[in-house]
Each structure stands twice: as C-alpha cells, then as structure tokens.
Design a protein that fits this description.
Elements lengths: L1 H15 L2 H17 L7 H10 L6 H17 L3 H16 L4 H17 L3 H18 L2 H17 L3 H16 L5 H15 L5 H16 L16
Helix pairs in contact: 1-2, 2-3, 3-4, 4-5, 4-6, 5-6, 6-7, 7-8, 8-9, 8-11, 9-10, 10-11
Length: about 230
C-alpha cells in the first residue's frame, strides 16, 4: 500500500536526519489524505512539513505545501486561519508569476473570501481563476472553479447567474471532448437550475462529485434524488 510505503520512507528519513526529505514525504502523505477525501487529516501533516522543508533548497516545494495547507484550511471552514497563512505566503507567491500559480492563488482567495462572507470579493477571485484556467486549457480546473461560483450564487438565491455559469462551463468540456461524466454532472446542474429546482445541497453535491472524479475517472454521477437519468 502506497501510504504504508510512505510511512516507512518517513521513518528512514527521520532516523538518518534527512529533515528536508522528511518534509517531502509528509507532503506526499498529505496528498494521500486529500485523494481519499479526508483533507482535514492532511492539515497537521502539512504544518509539520513546513517546519522541515529547507526553503532555500526548494522554494517551489515550500509554496506547494503552503498553498495546499491554505486550501485545505479553507475547505475545512477554518478561513481566518487560512487567510493569515495566505497573507504570510504572498511574497512567496510573488516569486512564481506563472499563470498556473496565479490562477490557483485566485482560486484559494475566492474560497477564503466566500468562507468569510465577502461575497463580492469571492465572486471576483473565483471568476478570475475560472477565466485563467480556461485560457490555460485546463477544462477540469475551470469547471471546478465554476461550480464553486455556482455554490456562491446558490447561497444568494441568484439562480440566473447560476444557470449562466453552468451554461458557460459546458462548452469548455464539450469542445475538448473530455470528461464525459463531468459533462453529465454540469448538464444536470444546468438543467435543474433552469427549472428553478436547484438548491445549495445540489450545488455542493456536484462540486464534491467533480473533486472525487478527478482522482477516480470511472466514478458514475448519481443525481441527488431529483432524477436518475444522467448516469
């Protein structure tokens, strides 16, 4: 089992005093939890990893660990904590001005703002991230951000905007002839929104499905109770 091998590797690095590599192993262990759908269990691992990593040796690795920690905290509802770490990490983000880093920073900024009730800022950040991912040709990431926008709109009862976002996202998948199951999930959300049957639970459920689908491409989409015709 991969997790078991990582645990063994971690112990070896601890025994020989390879602190930086120990930090690397902790980051890999944190991703196992994220892929398993338990990102909250990755949080203490990443805090420990940040104490082990040699920032001068691998600054990009440090940014990856900090970004993932900030994201997991935001997803866990610990948005004040995430915001504090984001402020601390801004100089490190600035060292990597590539579009991918910028888009992911916008994404997590949107998550945090939404969690703090800053809806206008959340909408602006999430929209910027979505457009950036579309420009990069990263359809899945663009759709994932779009669904977070949909949750934001569902929370505010903004059904028209929800329909617009879902409708604009569908061609991103269709034009690349990829992720047919994700396409089905987005089509479902678009349809129930157009029929004014969407709810916050529906929007959250579709987002959760897309996150799982990224790691398990064969996972079938199960519409939540309203229909069973989009499988």
């Amino acid at each position: 089992e991969f997790a078991g091998l990582l645990a063994q590797t971690l112990r070896v690095y601890q025994e020989v005093g390879e602190t930086h590599r120990e930090g690397r192993a902790l980051i890999k262990m944190s991703t196992v939890h994220e892929h398993a759908g338990t990102p909250e269990q990755a949080i203490p691992l990443l805090y420990e990893a940040l104490r082990k990593i040699d920032a001068g040796r691998e600054p990009r690795l440090l940014l990856s660990a900090q970004h993932n920690l900030i994201t997991y905290l935001a997803d866990a509802g610990r948005c004040m904590e995430a915001q504090g770490l984001l402020i601390q990490a801004r100089p490190l983000y600035a060292r990597f001005p590539d579009s991918g880093t910028r888009n992911r920073r916008h994404w997590v900024e949107g998550k945090i703002a939404r969690g703090l009730g800053q809806t206008r800022e959340a909408e602006a950040c999430l929209a910027a991230a979505r457009e950036g991912f579309i420009a990069e040709g990263k359809a899945f990431d663009a759709a994932s951000v779009a669904l977070e926008l949909a949750i934001l709109y569902a929370e505010q009862g903004r059904t028209a905007e929800l329909v617009r976002v879902a409708g604009e996202t569908l061609p991103v998948f269709a034009s690349r002839q990829s992720y047919p199951r994700a396409l089905a999930a987005l089509a479902y959300l678009n349809r129930v929104a157009a029929d004014d049957r969407v709810s916050l639970d529906v929007a959250v459920g579709v987002v959760a499905y897309l996150k799982r689908l990224k790691e398990h491409p064969g996972l079938a989409f199960q519409p939540p109770n309203l229909d069973q015709d989009l499988q």
